[in-house]
Amino acid sequence: MEESFDLIVVGGGAAGFMAAITAAEEGTPSIAVLEETTKTLEKVRISGGGRCNVTHACWDTHELAINYPRGEKALLGSFSRFSTGDAIDWFKKRGLELKTEEDGRIFPKSNSSTDVIKCLKKSLSSLGIKCLISTKVESIKQFSDHTFKVECKNKKSFFAKQVLIATGGNPSGKKIAHHLGHKLITAVPSLFTFKLNEKWLTSLAGISIDKVNLTLIANKKEFKEFGRVLITHWGLSGPAILKLSAFAARDLNLDKYKSNISINWVNKDFHEVNKILEDYRLNFSNISLKKHYPFNYIPRRLWVSFLNNLGIEDNLKWSSLSNIKKAALCNILTRSKHLIVGKGPFGEEFVTAGGINLNEINPKSMESLICKRLYFAGEVMNIDGITGGFNFQHCWTSGWIAGKAIARNSKIFENLKSSRE
Ligand SMILES: Cc1cc2nc3c(=O)[nH]c(=O)nc-3n(C[C@H](O)[C@H](O)[C@H](O)COP(=O)(O)OP(=O)(O)OC[C@H]3O[C@@H](n4cnc5c(N)ncnc54)[C@H](O)[C@@H]3O)c2cc1C
Q: Residues with Cβ < 8 Å from 122, sequence gap 6 or more?
């Protein structure tokens, strides 16, 4: 005979765990988490380079919400209920101490994602929640009394009064939601690096420059970003590039990842740079361009590459720099143009943009507006953030809200049952 649960959570990731734990703590009597693979919380383990960037030190809900290229508006209300501070307290109460780094990213004090996993697993098992691995959910049917039958690939099936789908970017959860009546927003990658076919730049792999201004044109729209850029053997990466890829994810996809990017390496306009170079011509006339140059935040290897690329001898004295070459140098420093020829290697992207349409989810409960007693949490929804801990924060927030709402419903079912008896 099939087992019955008050709640079945499909997907043993961050969002699924948070929802199951919250629902159990708030009184939902029997819960099972069904996980397709042999390991739960696998993304938590690999996240943040093995350190798990749990959340971000952002205390204002508006400021927090703007870090989500998709979902900003819906998240304003959600964050007013469960935000960064709540996530920190939540983990602290369960024995996990977190620390904030200078750039605002929050990690476990131990710098190990294993401790986040231990904390979540311990909470789950102490509440008697069943966790079934190697159990891929293939289909979910809803009966006229709104209860569900959950059918799995391993031929097991279960009954549930409520179901939460927390299958992340994996297409299978979205397919199930689609069969239950939901419209899907096509998934495209977000948070990826840019591929360039410019040897002179990619040969400088490893160089990172702060305070770079980027202007991307994708699908005829302009996107601007400012921050650190890392040159890789592949092209461009670093926080500013990843952020740009997130905000332009859909437009880059429409452009088939062939778009133009303009880079201002020195955070100054053409005329300011021209003035600085003129001063150098006057004041350092006898010194070579390679030996002494302005913008000391530009690594020498990159500066020399700029010179070589423009056909300027690096031993040329400042006094011999022609006006034409000076203008070319101003151009490359303030508006160097590059053609993006693709995105970083497949599978390198961190999250998917797209998923369950937010118009079909009640943001106060995460319950489907299409299918009663069906809930969503985490990346399966059309919400994604930039790097820095924002994606997990959304998992904690949506999982917590869904868990609370599910527990409220469980109480209603219990009351109904006892009033009938
Ligand atoms: C390399 C990498 C590093 C990252 N680092 C960070 C970071 O430091 N900070 C941050 O905020 N974000 C980070 N992210 C993003 C973050 O990991 C995700 O946003 C987050 O894991 C999403 O959680 P989720 O619970 O929604 O989905 P997931 O973590 O993807 O969990 C979904 C689970 O559902 C299971 N599943 C799928 N389909 C089925 C099915 N049909 N039946 C049963 N089970 C199913 C999957 O196997 C999986 O275990 C990183 C992502 C990557 C790839």
A: 94, 95
State residue 401 phi and psi, 5-degree precision.
-65, -45
| Four-CA torsion 393, 191, 226, 302, nearest 10 degrees | 130
Pairing of strands 367-368, 361-362: antiparallel
Report how far apart, in Å, the C-alpha atoms of 244 and of each of 16, 112, 228, 360 are: 29, 28, 12, 28
Ligand 1 touching residue 386 (CB < 6 A): no
If asked whether residues 258 and 276 sit together in one domain, one would say no
For 314, the domain range is 270-336
β-sheet bridge partners, residue 105: 56
Whether 163 and 199 map to the same domain: the answer is no
In total, how many domains does the chain have? Answer: 3
Spacing, Cα 213 to ligand 1 middle (Å): 31
Check whether 349 has a pLDDT greater than 60.
no
pLDDT tens readout for residues 54-84: 999 999 999 999 999 999 999 999 999 999 9
User: How close is the Cα of 186 to the center of ligand 1, in Å?
Assistant: 18
pLDDT 10s digits, 237-275 = 999 999 999 999 999 999 999 999 999 999 999 999 999
By DSSP bridging, strand 361-362 and strand 31-34 are: unpaired
- Whether 200 and 285 map to the same domain: the answer is no
